[in-house]
Design brief:
The protein is of the alpha/beta class. It contains two helices and eight strands; from the N terminus they run E-H-E-E-E-E-H-E-E-E. Among the domains are: 59 residues, 2,3-Dihydroxybiphenyl 1,2-Dioxygenase, domain 1; 55 residues, 2,3-Dihydroxybiphenyl 1,2-Dioxygenase, domain 1 (Roll). The protein is globular, with a radius of gyration of 21 Å.
């Protein structure tokens, strides 16, 4: 299988308007789709031709706790930060000035060897990074492991290792493949079937 990118990352907000102001009006992402009814919204912003970032708005959601990008934590935890790629160094500095003028905390530009990055937080206190590739350095074409004590799996290299997981014993026949209706059908003028008990995720 070949992945095409990130279709969408789904975050949560207690204020869709504040989120729209930041992602659409400050950062320039198009608001391309919106689903909703009382007590629920799900809006999508275009990041690239293939990638989107999305937000659920649920009553009572509050901004996340203060936590610096990459700072270690203990206990239950699932997400640290997301880095968005920019094409050119000038765009990184333009974005830094724009965030600063809008009153958002924003870091200095940091040289990570293969990218230059700056760090900030959106109105939901989601930790965001913005990164520009360093010319002549491509870790995708030339993977590198600089961990002084890499894990056993990491020592096996960049490519997927065959035979680690069980092979599929029974493929789902085409005659049994069922696609269940979801809320997103409303985006194309269709109504989900009320009688269907299948999953309704977007």
């Amino acid at each position: 299988m070949r992945f095409t990118g990130i279709n969408h990352l789904a975050m949560a907000t207690g204020s869709m308007d504040a989120t729209i102001r930041y992602w659409r009006d400050l950062l320039g992402l198009r608001l391309v789709a919106g689903l909703g009814h009382p007590g629920y919204r799900h809006y999508f912003f275009e990041l690239t031709e293939r990638d989107m970032i999305a937000f659920f708005e649920w009553p009572g959601v509050e901004p996340g706790p203060d936590k610096d990008h990459g700072a270690p934590v203990r206990g239950p935890f699932t997400f640290d930060h997301i880095s968005f790629g920019l094409e050119a160094e000038d765009e990184l500095w333009e974005l830094r000035d724009r965030l600063d003028a809008a009153g958002f905390w924003v870091s200095e530009v940091v040289d990570h060897g293969f990218i230059h990055s700056l760090y900030s937080f959106d109105p939901n206190n989601i930790a965001v990074e913005f990164s520009v590739p360093v010319a002549g350095v491509d870790i995708r074409k030339n993977p590198v492991m600089a961990d002084t004590e890499p894990t056993a799996c990491a020592r096996q290299g960049a490519e997927p290792v065959p035979g680690v997981w069980p092979k599929v014993a029974h493929s789902t026949p085409k005659s049994e493949r069922r696609v269940y209706p979801g809320e997103g059908l409303r985006l194309v003028g269709k109504e989900p079937e009320d009688g269907d008990k299948g999953p309704r995720h977007v």
